[in-house]
Every structure is written in structure tokens, then in C-alpha cells.
Q: What sequence folds into this?
């Protein structure tokens, strides 16, 4: 294999797994509906397509186990699709298990390890047993789904001669045309299809029986077949509305049962029985293309540049006292819209992460003998793709925690006068340029006293510490902290909420916890919609300007001198409505010589850190609020303490974006 | 960036890139204080006049802050300060040479760009061992041009000593 070919192979393989992952996630999503008892046609089709595509891809890469399993699974779905088998709880359970195994096999193939030999064997046996039973009963069942003829029904038998295709006739066009006349049900007879090696692709082997529910005149129907009538046997029969049900369907039994030749027929037609409904609404096909993320990022960058250049142009015009040129206004609007559009490309519904949670809850609850119901709200809320990826781990961890630590066992719940089934609510909503995700359970709540006792025992806080309610709750985020009485395999290994908090901080978010003993716990994640754009406040510190993330700003004010207090050990505090908040002079921290140091002469911007701590930043003044495109400093330099990145202002100069978390740990240097 | 790189590549095509068949390479020489230095022309991305930079807090003196290079944030290093001759009083006449080091872009603040030198490999001398204490790892060689001496800089090691924390020269001597 040449290097080129090898690269191509690796790339195709990567694409296959990326697509499989997407399809499996989508499948999971759709199977959720199945659990609620029914699976409609659209869902079933989508699941079938997913399994079929995975099978096809797996075949290309010679993942035999995967192909075999997918093939069996596909056969089961196929029978459900054409109505030869009905969805009942047993079948539904089987499908869900089969989907699990399929995901497992795909994962095994991706990791290039072999799955356990018996993986899926039991499911496969169950599928085969089920199908054997069902095909016996299917043999006597009508092939056409019953059509309730409320209006006039016409039965048409259309048997093309073998040379129909050679005469440039296309049965599909006829069928399509027919479907415009009314509601059309189609049965295809593939019994004439020979073995593969004897197929002449120029010959037509299929024939059809249609039931057309129509008010159209016989003449109109005859017209449809006008061009093919010499190349096919065509017969039709009119059925009146009432008589249809019973007498009509005996006839279908005479057409050969399609099942046996179904595989051969697939060469010519995708499924034996097709519900043709061309005229009416077809399920909307989701059209999408696969684009490398780097290209989208590039586009985001370029548009960011465009916005900046445009702002520079405007400033330039203003500085020369030129009247604003016509069209600049619309250029303004267009660039803004363009920026929104480009940002939207990266947005995805949180559903892709949420979709994994029901299964997680089910699994964990089953293992712990708990009854838990998961309610999900706002799955459509959209978030930047990279943010979504970073959310997956923390959310999984927190949901697992809620089931394990939050929800009590049924017995305990009943004793406390609650319903045996606990409820966890996962709620996403957009608030301004942030997304709010809440995980709420109606469990036991967090026992603050036990939390503090545990923290003392583990040496996280010194003995005898008295903590406020919020501070006590904050302990769950301390590294190496776990309150589980026993270490279970579900959670309680002491790596936990501190990692969650770190992950959330990494994507610029914050986490808050509320808990009422006996009533439940609520975690709130506040996460920026995107990592690429930030709502900021431009502040001045001497001759320098900085961007402060708007979300962290609580308020700004000019304190009276009586509000400021110098501490003897160094440092200053300001009193804000009875609270004392440490002050940090940005000019001193960053060594800006000409900055205002006395807050009474400048401004204090009160900011809140992710941990809920407060800090008063002393600045010269506020310049204004603006949306900025975040640029990395590390791309060409190293990290700078207190600075999370940079952006480019309207005048083309770089402004640094402040990192509140790091600032809180910086000290003022003597001026 | 790629647009720019393409035109840059075209330009290189015209002036001849790298060492030709006679082992001749091209360098851009510039003046820092009283000394002449040279860097490989292939590393140079752009040469622009000095404009005010945004100061990065709590950095060594030779870090002159960052500037906006068509959307990328690029740090600027003051070579005079780095070579221990005190900070440059930068004016519009000073020059920032934008160079690529690995996959990073950095700006070097110099007094002026002097020349493009075509030098055969044979004419690049090794840096002699000296008894003067100092960090010479970023000096790659010495080019003799007539009666002047141009010091060839190794950008990779220079950049390492410019950005790696804790690797700042404790004591510098004039080159």
C-alpha cells in the first residue's frame, strides 16, 4: 500500500467512526421514543438507515463481527419496517439491547481490540428466534397493509415486459405520476428476479400491484400508463368503499410471498413493500455536509477580521471628519449578520450530550436498586460545538452523583413521605450570552454538618472550623473530597466535583450549588455560549486598556473614602453594603505606572469569581461594553498570569482579556 | 495567512530560496545598537515599521508587548534589550521583523534593516569560545562581509531563551 493510499485509508476509517458515533447517538435518541411504547415509521426508518450505513461501512473495513451483527439487527428492523412484525415490549427491549451491542462492537473496532466472542450472541439468538416465529405468521398475513378505503379505490396490476427498460420507459415515473392522483399503496413482486449471476441489468424483473385511493376518472388513470401499455400487462379493478376490507385482500395472497427473494430483490428495490406517498408530505430529509472544524474556525477568524477592519474604517472616516459614506450603514448590518451566521455554524443543540443521560440514569439506578425518573428540558438549546464536547464529562459525573448520592433508596424515600421514585431534572436554557444548565434532584440534600465533619477528618479544613452554609457547601468542590459512606463502583472515589469544577472553569463557566436538607440539591452551571466570542467591558488602567468578561462583573461604583480601609498587614478592603471585599489595584498588579491607585479617584469594579468569591478591581474608568473575538496569546507566546487571552479593538490595537480567577490569586506589587 | 504565504513563496521564487547549488544562502541583516546581526531569510515573514504595542504585564524588559498582525496576536521582543544594551527608544523609524519560529510568529524590534546577504556556506565561521561569561547558544555563526562582521542568530534557541520562564540570562555582556 502506498503512503497515499494508507493515508486515505486512515482518513476513511476516521470518517467511518465519526459518522458511526453520530449515527449511534442519533439512534439512542430515537430509541428513547421506543421506550415510551411506540415507534413510528420515521423513527424506524432512521434507525434502520443508521444500522444499514454502519453495516456498509464496517464491510468496507472488514470488521466481520460488526457486519454480522448489524446484518441480523438490520433484518429485524426490516421486518418491523414492512409491517411483518409488530413492535411489542419484547421487541422494543431487544432493539435497545441490540443498539447497545452495536455501539460496543463499533467501539471495539475503533480501538482495534476484539470484542468478547459472545458479545451480542444472546441478542442475536433472540432476534433469530423472534424472526423465525414471526415469519410463520407472516406467511398468512396480507402483504399490503390494510387500506381503509374511504373513497373509491382502484386496484391496478402492472406487469412490465422484460424489455420495458430498453424502450426508455421508467416504472418509477409511472408510479410517481400515479401517486399524484391520490393516495397510493404499492406492493412490489420481485419473484421473477433471477439469481445475481443471471441478472441482465437491462431487463425489468419487477412487477407491481397498486391500490389507488382516488376520485380521478378511469381515463386519467389510463393516461398514466399510456406510454407503457404496449410493454406491460396492465389490469385494473375498481373497488367501492364499503366492500373493500374483506374481499379485497384475499387477492394479495396470490402474489408470491416476497420474503424469500427479498435479498435478491434489494438489487432493484430497497424494500419489498414500499409506501409510496410522493405527492403528499415526505419526511423532511436533513441535508447537511461534513466540514472540518478547522475550516469553520478559519471562517470565524476571517469574519472577526472583517468586523475589526470595518470598525477601523469607520473610525478612520470619523477621525478625518468625513461624512459617513452611503452604504457603510448597510455594510455594518451585513457584517454583523455575517458574523452571527458564521457563529451559528458552530452551534449545536445540547441534545447530543443530554441524549446519553437517560441510559446512564437507567443503568446506575438499576445497579443501586433505586427508582429514578429523568426529566429533560430544553434539549434544543444551542451551544458552541467545542463547549458541548467539554460538557459531556462533567454532566455525566454530576448526573451519576445525583443518582448515587442525591436520590435515596425507595425505602428511605417512602419513610420520608416521598414517592418511591426520585426525580432528576436536567434543564438547559439560554440567558443572554450564557447558557444555564441545572441538575436538580428531589433527594436527601447535602448534609452540611457531615460535610464539615468529613472535611475536618480529611484535613481539608482545620479542626474546630465554623463555616457558613455556603462555605460548607463549597467543600464538595475541594480536591480529594468524597462523602459517600462506602466507595461504590458508581461514584465516591474522591475524584469528583473538583474535577467537574475545573472542567467547567476551563470552558469559561461557573458552577453553583444549592441544597435544602431533605428536599434536594440543585447544581447550576453558567456557561458561555461560545469560546470564540465574549461580551466584555473595556476598562482603562492608566494608558492601557483591558477587557473584563461581562459575566463576572457584579457592579461598579466610586467609593467614598470612608468605605476604604487599609489593613495593617498590607492590602485594602472596601465595604459594600455591610460586606467587606478585598481591593486589587490593576495598575499595581500589572505595573502600569500612570494608573490611578486610589479608588476614591477612580472606580471600583466588583467582580465575582467562579467560586463565588468577590474582588474589587481598582481601575481608572469604564470605556464601554463590546463583543470581542477571543484570540489566544499562547499561539505565539506563553501564558501571562492574570490574562486569559487577547482581542483586537476597533483601532487595530490588541487589548488583553483579564482572567478573574487568576487575578484573585495575584498580589499587588509596590508602586 | 495562506494568501500572504503564497505571495511570500512567490517572492522567494524570484529571489532564489535557501542554499543554491553553490551552497550560497541568503540572510537578512539588521542593526541592533552598534552591532550587525543576520537571520535566515526563509524565516522572515514581514518587515514593518514600529507602532505602539500593547504591554504585557509582568514580563522581562525585552518583551515589548504584543501587536496585531492581521488578526494574530504577535509578541515583540526588543533585541537591543535582550543583548544587554538597554531598552530601545522605539520610534516610527525603528523596524519590527516578523519571523516564523516553528509554528509561531514573533516580532523582533531592531534599529534598522541593513541588507540582504548572499553568503556561501564556506564563509560562515564558527563562534569562537570566549572567556566572557554569557549565553551564546543563540549565536549560530559569524559572517565576514568585507571588513565588517555580522553575527548570525539561531532563531530557535533565541526564541527559547526569549520565552521560556526561568531561562533568562542572569548576567549579560555586550556582544
A:
Amino acid at each position: 500500500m502506498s503512503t497515499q493510499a494508507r493515508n486515505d485509508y486512515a482518513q476513511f476509517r476516521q470518517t467511518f467512526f465519526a459518522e458511526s458515533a453520530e449515527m449511534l447517538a442519533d439512534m439512542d435518541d430515537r430509541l428513547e421514543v421506543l421506550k415510551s411504547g411506540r415507534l413510528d415509521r420515521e423513527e424506524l426508518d432512521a434507525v434502520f438507515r443508521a444500522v444499514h450505513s454502519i453495516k456498509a461501512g464496517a464491510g468496507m473495513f472488514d470488521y466481520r463481527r460488526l457486519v454480522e451483527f448489524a446484518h441480523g439487527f438490520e433484518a429485524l428492523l426490516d421486518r418491523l419496517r414492512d409491517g411483518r412484525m409488530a413492535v411489542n415490549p419484547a421487541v422494543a427491549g431487544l432493539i435497545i439491547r441490540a443498539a447497545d451491542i452495536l455501539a460496543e462492537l463499533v467501539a471495539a473496532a475503533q480501538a482495534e481490540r476484539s470484542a468478547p466472542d459472545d458479545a451480542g450472541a444472546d441478542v442475536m439468538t433472540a432476534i433469530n428466534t423472534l424472526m423465525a416465529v414471526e415469519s410463520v405468521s407472516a406467511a398468512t398475513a396480507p402483504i399490503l397493509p390494510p387500506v381503509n378505503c374511504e373513497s373509491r379505490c382502484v386496484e391496478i396490476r402492472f406487469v412490465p415486459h422484460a424489455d420495458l427498460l430498453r424502450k426508455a420507459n421508467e416504472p418509477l415515473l409511472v408510479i410517481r405520476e400515479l401517486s399524484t392522483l391520490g393516495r397510493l399503496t404499492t406492493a412490489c413482486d420481485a419473484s421473477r428476479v433471477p439469481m445475481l449471476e443471471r441478472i441482465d441489468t437491462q431487463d425489468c424483473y419487477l412487477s407491481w400491484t397498486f391500490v389507488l385511493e382516488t376520485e380521478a376518472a378511469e381515463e386519467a388513470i389510463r393516461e398514466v400508463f399510456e406510454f407503457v401499455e404496449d410493454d406491460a400487462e396492465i389490469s385494473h379493478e375498481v373497488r367501492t368503499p364499503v366492500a373493500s376490507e374483506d374481499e379485497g385482500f384475499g387477492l394479495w395472497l396470490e402474489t408470491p410471498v416476497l420474503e424469500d427473494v427479498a435479498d435478491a430483490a434489494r438489487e432493484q428495490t430497497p424494500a419489498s413493500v414500499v409506501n409510496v406517498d410522493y405527492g403528499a408530505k415526505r419526511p423532511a430529509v436533513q441535508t447537511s455536509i461534513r466540514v472540518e472544524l478547522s475550516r469553520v474556525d478559519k471562517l470565524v477568524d476571517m469574519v472577526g477580521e472583517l468586523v475589526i477592519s470595518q470598525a477601523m474604517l469607520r473610525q478612520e472616516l470619523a477621525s478625518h471628519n468625513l461624512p459617513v459614506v452611503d452604504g457603510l450603514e448597510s455594510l455594518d448590518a451585513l457584517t454583523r449578520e455575517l458574523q452571527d451566521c458564521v457563529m451559528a455554524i458552530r452551534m449545536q443543540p445540547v441534545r447530543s450530550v443530554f441524549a446519553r443521560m437517560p441510559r446512564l440514569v437507567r443503568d446506575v439506578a438499576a445497579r443501586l436498586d433505586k427508582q429514578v425518573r429523568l426529566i429533560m428540558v430544553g434539549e434544543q438549546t444551542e451551544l458552541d460545538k467545542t463547549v458541548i464536547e467539554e460538557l459531556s464529562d462533567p454532566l455525566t459525573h454530576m448526573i451519576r452523583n445525583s443518582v448515587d448520592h442525591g436520590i435515596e433508596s425507595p425505602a428511605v424515600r417512602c419513610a420520608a413521605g416521598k414517592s418511591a421514585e426520585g426525580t432528576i431534572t436536567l434543564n438547559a436554557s439560554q440567558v443572554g450570552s450564557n447558557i444555564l444548565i441545572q441538575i436538580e434532584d428531589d433527594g436527601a440534600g447535602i448534609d452540611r454538618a457531615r460535610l464539615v465533619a468529613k472535611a475536618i477528618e480529611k484535613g481539608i479544613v482545620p479542626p474546630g472550623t465554623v463555616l457558613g452554609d455556603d462555605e460548607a457547601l463549597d467543600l464538595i468542590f475541594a480536591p480529594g473530597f468524597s462523602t459517600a459512606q462506602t466507595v461504590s463502583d458508581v461514584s465516591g472515589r474522591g475524584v469528583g466535583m473538583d474535577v467537574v469544577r475545573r472542567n467547567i472553569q476551563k470552558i469559561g463557566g461557573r458552577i453553583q450549588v444549592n441544597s435544602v436538607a431533605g428536599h434536594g440539591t440543585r447544581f447550576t452551571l453558567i456557561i458561555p455560549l461560545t469560546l470564540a466570542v465574549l461580551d466584555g467591558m473595556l476598562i482603562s488602567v492608566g494608558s492601557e486598556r483591558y477587557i473584563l468578561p461581562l459575566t463576572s462583573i457584579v457592579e461598579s461604583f466610586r467609593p467614598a473614602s470612608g468605605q476604604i480601609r487599609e489593613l495593617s498587614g498590607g492590602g485594602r478592603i472596601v465595604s459594600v453594603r455591610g460586606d467587606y471585599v478585598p481591593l486589587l489595584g490593576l495598575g499595581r498588579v500589572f505595573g502600569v505606572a500612570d494608573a490611578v491607585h486610589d479608588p476614591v479617584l477612580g472606580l471600583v469594579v466588583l467582580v465575582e469569581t467562579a467560586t463565588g468569591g468577590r474582588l474589587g478591581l481598582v481601575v481608572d474608568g469604564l470605556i464601554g461594553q463590546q463583543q470581542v473575538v477571543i484570540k489566544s496569546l499562547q499561539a505565539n507566546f506563553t501564558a501571562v498570569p492574570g490574562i486569559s487571552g487577547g482581542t483586537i479593538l476597533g483601532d487595530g490595537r490588541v487589548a488583553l482579556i483579564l482572567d478573574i480567577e487568576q487575578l484573585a490569586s495575584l498580589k499587588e506589587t509596590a508602586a | 495567512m495562506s494568501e500572504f504565504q503564497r505571495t511570500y513563496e512567490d517572492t522567494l521564487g524570484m529571489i532564489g530560496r535557501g542554499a543554491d547549488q553553490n551552497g550560497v544562502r541568503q540572510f537578512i541583516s539588521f542593526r541592533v545598537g552598534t552591532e550587525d546581526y543576520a537571520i535566515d531569510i526563509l524565516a522572515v515573514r514581514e518587515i514593518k515599521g514600529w507602532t505602539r504595542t500593547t504591554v504585557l504585564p509582568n514580563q522581562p524588559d525585552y518583551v515589548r508587548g504584543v501587536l496585531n498582525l492581521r488578526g494574530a496576536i504577535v509578541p515583540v521582543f526588543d533585541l537591543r534589550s535582550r543583548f544587554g544594551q538597554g531598552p530601545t527608544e522605539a520610534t516610527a523609524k525603528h523596524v519590527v521583523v516578523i519571523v516564523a519560529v516553528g509554528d509561531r510568529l514573533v516580532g523582533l524590534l531592531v534599529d534598522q534593516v541593513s541588507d540582504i546577504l548572499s553568503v556561501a556556506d564556506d564563509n560562515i565561521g564558527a563562534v569562537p569560545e570566549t572567556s566572557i561569561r554569557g549565553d551564546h547558544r543563540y549565536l549560530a555563526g559569524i559572517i565576514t562581509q568585507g571588513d565588517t562582521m555580522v553575527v548570525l542568530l539561531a532563531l530557535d534557541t533565541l526564541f527559547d531563551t526569549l520565552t521560556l520562564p526561568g531561562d533568562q540570562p542572569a548576567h549579560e555582556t555586550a556582544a
User: Anything to note?
Assistant: Chain B touches chain A through 24 residues (CB under 8 Å).
